[in-house]
Write a structure and sequence with these properties.
The structure is a single chain. This protein is α/β, with parallel strands linked by helices. 43% of the residues lie in helices and 22% in strands. It is built from 11 helices and 12 strands. The strands form 3 sheets. A 5-stranded mixed β-sheet has the order 2-4-5-7-6. The protein starts with a helix and ends with a helix.
Length: 317
């Protein structure tokens, strides 16, 4: 319900003109890096390749609205790609920069290209492989209209899709991020934090490592409890906290956290799970374990890791 209301509110504000763009010049790679960090774990969970081609071009647009538009395009690409990869890149075309999002997903028949931008409209094939509201692309269309940008689409059923958005190229000196925004993406904010991650899916572990290292964290990782114990035995580094998936090949995440705490002390721990049952919540609460549900929201994870940093500083005083 929260997702539905949020999307409808965005659409209403865009349609009524209540959401006015604030144009500024900025490097597009600042935006791309944030989106890559946000979606890397989700792509890794599905076993998809997610590639962002480096780009140093400067554009003039509304940073927040353009980010929302690209988030929706990348999210859709990952959601409707059962296997393969998603590629995001930019290229200069005269006085504009074209931002491309390619995927190897289910594709869209040409007869449906217009329909997918209508709110609450979903294609039958897409609805079979992923949940959704049918609002993502209608928001993309509205944001593009507000920004004065053009959307391009090339797709074929069963052969993937290519969405492109054009934004003005800028020769101005990029506007610096406000201090509040800079602090939010500053990787040094979590520097020195070491997380021990356990998940029985190697691709998920790799995605989590990419995300955490992008925030300045150090990472120890293992597919299960036994190898996690070996990992901490083989190093002099004591982790500052535990990130553990609930469903493991042997035992579960709560049991692994209990065993690791016996060895390492009462470390803060986060259980990552798609299981929303009261039993799992109760087990976690009894052990003083915080719970994050899948699909994982990077902002929520980052907020909990910031608490680890506070605990580490307090322990050192």
């Amino acid at each position: 319900m929260e997702e539905i209301f949020g999307a409808l509110l965005d659409m209403s504000r865009l349609d009524t003109g209540a959401l006015r763009p604030e144009f500024a010049s900025f490097r597009i790679d600042e935006l791309m890096r944030q989106i890559e960090l946000e979606f890397a774990p989700l792509a890794a969970t599905k076993g998809l390749g997610l590639t962002f081609v480096p780009c140093s071009l400067v554009v003039r647009s509304d940073r927040r609205l353009l980010r929302r538009l690209l988030q929706n395009l990348v999210s859709n690409a990952i959601k409707y790609t059962p296997a393969g990869r998603v590629l995001v890149g930019c290229r200069r075309q005269n006085d504009v920069v074209r931002i491309d999002v390619y995927d190897t997903g289910v594709g869209i028949p040409q007869s449906k290209w217009r329909d997918i931008f209508v709110e609450f409209h979903r294609l039958d094939q897409g609805a079979k492989i992923a949940r959704g509201l049918g609002l993502g692309l209608s928001i993309v269309e509205r944001v593009a209209r507000v920004l004065g940008s053009r959307i391009e689409l090339e797709s074929e059923s069963g052969r993937g899709s290519h969405f492109a958005i054009t934004v003005p190229h800028s020769t101005d000196v990029p506007m610096e991020l406000p201090a509040r925004e800079s602090a939010r993406v500053d990787s040094g904010q979590l520097a020195g934090i070491t997380a021990l991650c356990i998940d029985n899916e190697p691709s998920v572990l790799d995605g989590m490592e990419i995300l955490l290292r992008g925030w300045g964290c150090d990472v120890l990782k293992a597919p299960g409890l036994a190898l996690a114990l070996d990992a901490v035995s083989d190093t002099s580094i004591v982790p500052n906290g535990l990130l553990v998936d609930y469903h493991l090949d042997q035992g579960n995440g709560i049991e692994a956290i209990i065993a690791l705490r016996r060895r390492l002390g009462d470390l803060p721990a986060i259980l990552i799970t798609a299981d929303r049952s009261p039993d799992v919540r109760e087990l976690a609460r009894n052990e003083g374990v915080q719970v994050l549900h899948k699909p994982l929201k990077p902002a929520a994870l980052r907020a909990l890791l910031a608490q680890w940093r506070v605990l580490r500083v307090a322990a050192a005083e």
